[in-house]
């Protein structure tokens, strides 16, 4: 949309009177909200409901009746980036653009000789609902960088005293131009933009500084270059001039711009002045950010229920804002992060509702404790297609085609039946025996069904026994209790009813949860789910909603049945049974994130959290990465003297006399980059340490060493509780195993316990299971009526009962049927199975046994359970509360290392853990709000954030990007990346310990600006195993190739075709060649791991999910048909790219899948991840047809192909 002069003039009048006085805005966008509606997300369908009761978090209040937003001007699409000449005056500091004569006269990319400047004024920087700013971009064009911008400066209109744009005459233009180059001649009139600002927000990363400095150093070697080495000094001088030297001093900025030709005779200066006037007056007159906090005008909280939704409360068409590195103030930070993250979550949940899998082979098993079969077990066999299935503990919905709702047979009303029998017995208490028997039998047959044999079931003696017996009953209460027991023991004979309710013709979706169990008598990759019948639809009555009734093809399950025997029969009988799975989304993550930010912003709002002073200081610091007088400096070298002693020694000085040799040896093995980081731990702002690093740089090795040194550095082991967080379960599982192996290898006494903590609900169920009666062959039966009552008590708010109570019943049944839990199948490559050595339930049981004197009530109830084989409703309720208390006490006293995800760490019980150090790994792919969870809820000495910003970013799906979320671009920027872009990282781990042979140079140049390097030693870089892989590549390329010593090859299939599979792509030609080549490599005895005789392993990374599915299916078939051995099958793995971060293999085969278009294969972060997983050999399948545009040609995948062509390492 072209913004005309008249439109701007109109907007200007609306924002102020003709005499310049501010007036209330007249254009409002209003949205009416029902005052009884509460904006909570329903986990199942993502809709907004008004009947879910009060929210859990106390700071979520109901939305008021009206929400207003002020939109005073149209999008400014005509204003963008403009080349200009810059002059900065800041006290004694003065900086000017000094281009060549030609560039000074043209004002285009005016900076081959110095730093070029662009002024950006656009709708991304001038939003009607946010603080508005001008952006000055600093570019270096001559270095041929992919991104020529090397820094940026943001000047907020709120910080400007004034701003004007004026036309210069030709003479005035000539004088102004000569200030930048005395020989320049003005050929046209220029525009001068001038403003005075109290402060400038400057963003430049260490990487950008090094790129400019590196270019200068390279230029020094060029002959006849009279301006070599000038760019970096220019940049430093400009940065210094833009930084405030005194809070009372202002910065004068002048810009020269060439006036463009406009249609309709409009003047560019008038357009600029109108824009400046509108924006400046608006931001000076009122706080635009206040509009976002109409429901919390005093505190400026933004709970999830107050977040304006895209296309609902938020107006349509808001421009997507540019990502910010530093925020102007806390309001801007809260609005950008919370509104952006919440609407991203809303969009992804809505998109996931209709995403279903293909059909899978399935079996169904009844749950004994569920008498009406409203809960049951589903066993899914993926056959290599588990990519679309839920992870452990994740919820989903399962549909079994052909299973529909039927009229439910109401269970007998035990209460009414008992009441009628008691009445009859009491009414005929004094009748003779014959009359008593006849009368009571008649009443019995009214409530019991003759068709079930009730008419012949009861003898006269049975009925006479119902009389009151003084010696047995003592009083009427005992007599009534005996009669109730009689009716209950014969409940199977009671009459039942079939209600007249219509049923649907559609298949039923059963809510389900994937359980952490393996059934070894079925397929290796079989997955176990606990499923429930959904509740009946709501009606106008207040009756309790019951599960719907369905008929499932169960095989009868005897009480003594073992799982292996039973499942063999089930597989035979249910051979044609299929299931479809739809993964659920949960609002647990976004609720935890939003709560954390609000708690940091306003600690008084967090009733369930205690926010420490250092946490608040850290929160203030990360908004702009600037220290103030309240920002404490944390010195870990002082807190842990061994780190200081190590950093100041060569491992031999007397200060280390008490430090074990194992720790000293580990320190000496660290590379220079890691040692430099340790040396910088003496001045952490608010205790924050940001540590980026290249792929394979050993970030996790640094974490392990720091923890080990703090524990053992002073001789005797000192407990040092530590919390390790990662954004996904797979990374957490891997690290828990690595921690255990690391401390086992050290062999020092007093090693910490490693706890792998899953969702707390799951862990509590496990403890109840482990504390239950010991090993027995018979199943411990639970009364379903009692269990149902317990579930209603525990989950009164829940729409579906698939969580803790029923899961406990299912876990107990499978265990008693001989199913081994937490035991990895030897033939399975799954890394999601839990280790009993590091599980939280094991730690809780051990804590209970050690402190049993503090848990006498729990001990008493467990004794009753062992004696009676079941527990009452009251006892079940009490057990749950006692176990929760046990967990709280155990976590409070735990002195080891907890490995978990940020969402689990946000749990109010888990927050009892007193961590002294907190590490967030893979922080570059963790959402910013997810990173703040640990800052809010833990008070350690320091928080560490480690990751690789060149690899995957926080996930933002296409469905989220397609919405009008104005802050969606910010959501792909992590806290770690912002810190790196602001240049406040603690250090940079630039030495890779992964890439051998010829793999490092190309990855370093393309992905890391040349900063990545390996250890450099030929022996390290070319061990005998890597030489063998180089020979294999040479053999693969054939005799026509003159390339030697290459461990990377690019393969092309000119006649292959990628085919659409749903929304993804697959390529069968690639799959056939890759699997054939993989089998050949697995059979080569010379291809081994580095410095080992153990055979090498292979990782296949297709860039499309459908291709992953195809690889796994074909690989599964190869194994089934005995064309690949079990041993070779275990040495080859297929992963999605998203699940490969942190992974490495000897051989990595990256399949780009596409043949005639690039798609998202051009994404630079995904390319970095894909091409840095290999240790010794890398095979890339990149077809030339993908490179079909200049944009793709200049992308990273285009550069990879160009280098491969240059080195002649392409196989067609």
UniProtKB/TrEMBL annotation:
Domain DNA2/NAM7 helicase helicase span(s) in chain numbering: 686-956
Domain (DNA2/NAM7 helicase-like C-terminal) ranges: 971-1183
Pfam families: AAA_11, AAA_12
Molecular-function GO term, any one: helicase activity
Lineage: superkingdom: Eukaryota
Gene3D superfamilies reported for this sequence: P-loop containing nucleotide triphosphate hydrolases
PANTHER family: DNA2/NAM7 HELICASE FAMILY, HELICASE SENATAXIN ISOFORM X1-RELATED
Protein's name in the database: Regulator of nonsense transcripts 1
Naturally occurring in which organism (per UniProt): Colletotrichum shisoi
């Amino acid at each position: 949309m072209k913004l005309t002069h008249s439109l701007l003039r109109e907007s200007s009048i609306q924002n102020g009177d003709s005499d310049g006085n501010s007036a209330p805005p007249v254009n409002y966008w209003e949205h009416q909200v029902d005052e009884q509606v509460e904006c909570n997300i329903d986990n199942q369908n993502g809709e907004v409901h008004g009947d879910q009761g009060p929210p859990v978090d106390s700071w979520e209040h109901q939305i008021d009746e009206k929400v207003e937003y002020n939109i005073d001007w149209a999008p400014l699409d005509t204003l963008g980036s403009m080349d200009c000449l810059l002059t900065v005056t800041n006290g004694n500091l003065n900086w000017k653009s000094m281009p060549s004569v030609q560039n000074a006269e043209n004002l285009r990319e005016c900076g081959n000789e110095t730093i070029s400047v662009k002024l950006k004024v656009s709708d991304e920087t001038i939003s009607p609902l946010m603080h508005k700013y001008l952006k000055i971009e600093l570019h270096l064009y001559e270095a041929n960088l992919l991104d020529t911008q090397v820094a940026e400066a943001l000047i907020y209109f709120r910080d400007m005293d004034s701003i004007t744009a004026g036309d210069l005459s030709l003479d005035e233009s000539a004088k102004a131009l000569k200030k930048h180059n005395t020989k320049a001649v003005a050929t046209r009139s220029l525009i001068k933009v001038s403003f005075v600002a109290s402060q400038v927000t400057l963003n430049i990363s260490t990487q950008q500084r090094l790129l400019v400095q590196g270019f200068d150093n390279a230029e020094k070697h060029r002959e006849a270059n009279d301006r070599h080495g000038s760019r970096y000094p220019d940049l430093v001088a400009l940065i210094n001039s833009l930084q405030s030297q005194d809070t009372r001093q202002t910065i004068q900025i002048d810009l020269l711009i060439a006036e463009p030709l406009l249609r309709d005779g409009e003047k560019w200066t008038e357009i600029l002045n109108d824009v400046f006037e509108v924006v400046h007056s608006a931001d000076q007159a009122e706080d635009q950010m206040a509009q976002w906090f109409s429901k919390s005008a005093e505190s400026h909280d933004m709970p999830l229920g107050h977040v304006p939704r895209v296309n609902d409360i938020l107006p349509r068409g808001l421009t997507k804002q540019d990502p910010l590195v530093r925020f102007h103030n806390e309001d801007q930070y809260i609005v950008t992060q919370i509104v952006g993250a919440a609407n991203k979550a809303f969009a992804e949940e809505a998109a996931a509702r209709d995403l279903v899998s293909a059909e899978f082979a399935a079996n169904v098993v009844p749950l004994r404790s569920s008498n009406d079969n409203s809960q049951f077990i589903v066993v899914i066999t993926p056959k290599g297609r588990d990519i679309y299935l839920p992870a452990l503990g994740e919820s989903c919905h399962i549909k079994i085609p052909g299973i529909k709702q039927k009229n439910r047979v109401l269970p007998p009303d035990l209460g009414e039946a008992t009441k009628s029998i008691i009445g009859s017995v009491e009414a005929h208490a004094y009748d003779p025996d014959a009359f008593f028997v006849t009368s009571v039998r008649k009443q019995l047959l009214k409530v019991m069904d003759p068709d079930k044999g009730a008419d012949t079931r009861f003898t006269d003696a049975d009925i006479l026994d119902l009389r009151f017996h003084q010696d047995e009953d003592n009083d009427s209460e005992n007599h009534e209790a005996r009669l109730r027991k009689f009716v209950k023991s014969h409940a199977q004979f009671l009459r039942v009813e079939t209600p007249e309710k219509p049923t649907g013709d559609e298949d039923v979706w059963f809510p389900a949860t994937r359980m952490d169990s393996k059934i070894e008598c079925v397929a290796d990759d079989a997955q176990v789910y606990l499923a429930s019948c959904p509740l009946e639809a709501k009606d106008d009555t207040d009756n309790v909603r019951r599960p719907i009734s369905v008929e499932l093809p169960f095989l009868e399950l005897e009480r003594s049945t073992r799982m292996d025997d039973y499942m063999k029969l089930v597989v035979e009988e249910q051979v044609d049974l299929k299931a479809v799975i739809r993964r659920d989304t949960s609002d647990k993550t976004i609720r935890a994130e939003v709560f954390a930010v609000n708690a940091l912003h306003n600690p008084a709002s967090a009733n369930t959290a205690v926010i420490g002073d250092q946490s608040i200081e850290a929160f203030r610091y990360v908004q702009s990465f600037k220290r103030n007088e309240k920002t404490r400096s944390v010195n870990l070298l002082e807190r842990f003297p061994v780190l200081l002693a190590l950093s100041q020694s060569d491992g031999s000085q007397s200060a280390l006399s008490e430090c074990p040799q194992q720790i000293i040896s580990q320190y000496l093995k660290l590379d220079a980059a890691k040692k430099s980081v340790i040396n910088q731990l003496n001045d952490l702002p608010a205790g924050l340490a940001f540590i980026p690093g290249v792929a394979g740089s050993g970030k996790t090795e640094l974490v392990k060493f720091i923890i080990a040194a703090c524990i053992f550095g002073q001789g005797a082991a000192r407990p040092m509780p530590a919390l390790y967080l990662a954004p996904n379960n797979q990374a957490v599982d891997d690290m828990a195993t690595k921690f255990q192996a690391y401390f086992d290898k050290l062999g020092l006494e007093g090693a910490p316990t490693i706890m792998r903590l899953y969702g707390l609900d799951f862990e509590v169920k496990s403890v109840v299971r482990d504390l239950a009666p010991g090993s027995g062959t018979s199943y411990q039966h639970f009364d379903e009526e009692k269990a149902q009552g317990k579930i209603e008590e525990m989950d009164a708010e829940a729409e579906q009962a698939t969580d803790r109570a029923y899961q406990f019943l299912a876990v107990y049944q499978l265990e008693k049927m001989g199913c081994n839990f937490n035991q990895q199948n030897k033939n399975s490559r799954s890394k999601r199975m839990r280790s009993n050595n590091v599980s939280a339930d094991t730690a809780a049981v051990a804590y209970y046994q050690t402190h049993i004197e503090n848990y006498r009530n729990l001990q008493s109830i467990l004794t009753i359970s062992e004696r009676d084989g079941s527990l009452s409703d009251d006892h079940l309720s009490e057990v749950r509360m006692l176990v929760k208390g046990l967990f709280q006490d155990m976590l409070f006293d735990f002195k080891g290392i907890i490995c978990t995800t940020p969402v689990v760490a946000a749990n109010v019980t888990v927050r009892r853990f007193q961590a002294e150090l907190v590490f967030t790994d893979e922080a570059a792919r963790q959402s910013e709000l997810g990173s703040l969870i640990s800052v809010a809820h833990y008070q350690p000495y320091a928080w560490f954030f480690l990751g690789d910003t060149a690899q995957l970013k926080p996930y933002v799906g296409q469905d989220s990007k397609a919405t009008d979320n104005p802050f969606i671009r910010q959501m792909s920027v992590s806290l770690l990346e912002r810190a790196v872009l602001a240049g406040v990282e603690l250090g940079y781990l630039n030495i890779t310990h992964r890439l051998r042979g010829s793999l490092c140079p190309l990855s370093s140049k393309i992905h890391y600006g040349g900063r990545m390097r390996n250890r450099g030693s030929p022996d390290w870089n070319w061990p005998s195993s890597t030489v063998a892989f180089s020979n294999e590549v040479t053999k693969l390329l054939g005799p026509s190739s003159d390339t030697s010593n290459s461990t990377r090859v690019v393969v092309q299939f000119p006649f292959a075709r990628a085919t659409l599979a749903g929304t993804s792509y697959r390529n069968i030609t690639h799959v056939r060649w890759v699997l054939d080549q993989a089998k050949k490599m697995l059979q080569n005895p010379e291809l081994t791991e580095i410095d080992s005789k153990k055979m090498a392993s292979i990782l296949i990374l297709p860039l499309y999910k459908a291709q992953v599915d195809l690889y796994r299916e074909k690989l599964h078939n190869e194994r089934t048909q005995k064309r690949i051995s079990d041993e070779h099958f275990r040495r080859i793995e297929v992963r999605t790219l998203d699940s490969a971060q942190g992974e490495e293999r000897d051989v990595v085969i990256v399949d780009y899948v596409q043949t005639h278009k690039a798609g998202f294969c051009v994404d630079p972060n995904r390319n970095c991840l894909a091409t840095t997983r290999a240790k010794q050999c890398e095979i890339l399948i990149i077809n030339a047809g993908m490179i079909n545009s200049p944009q793709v040609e200049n992308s990273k995948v285009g550069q990879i192909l160009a280098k491969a062509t240059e080195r002649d390492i392409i196989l067609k």
